[in-house]
Amino acid sequence: MKTTRLRHHAGTLTLVAATTLFAQAQAAEEAETILAAKCAQCHTPQGEGALSRISQQRKTPEGWLMSIARMQIMHGLEISDDERRTLVKYLADKQGLAPSETEGVRYAMERRLNTMEQFDEPLNQMCARCHSGARVALQRRPAKEWEHLVHFHLGQWPSLEYQALSRDRDWLNIALEEVVPQLSERFPLASADWSAWQKQRPAAETLAGQWSFSGNMLAKGDVRGVMSVSVEPGDTFQLSIDGQYADGSPFKGSGSAVLYNGYEWRAQVQVGDTPMRQVLSARDGQMSGRMFEAEHDERGLDFVAAQQGNAQLLSVQPGHIKAGSEAELTLVGSGLSGAPDLGAGIEVLEVLAQDPQQTRLRVRAAPDAVAGLRDVRLGKLNGAQLAVYDSISEIKVVPAFSVARVGDNGASTPKVQGRFEAEAWGLGADGKPYRIGFLPAKWSVAPFDERAAEDEDVKYAGVMQDDGVFVPGDAGPNPARRMSTNNAGNLKVIAEMEQGDQTLKGEGQLIVTVQRWNNPPLP
Question: How is domain 204-307 classified at the architecture level of CATH?
Answer without folding.
Answer: Beta Barrel (2.40)
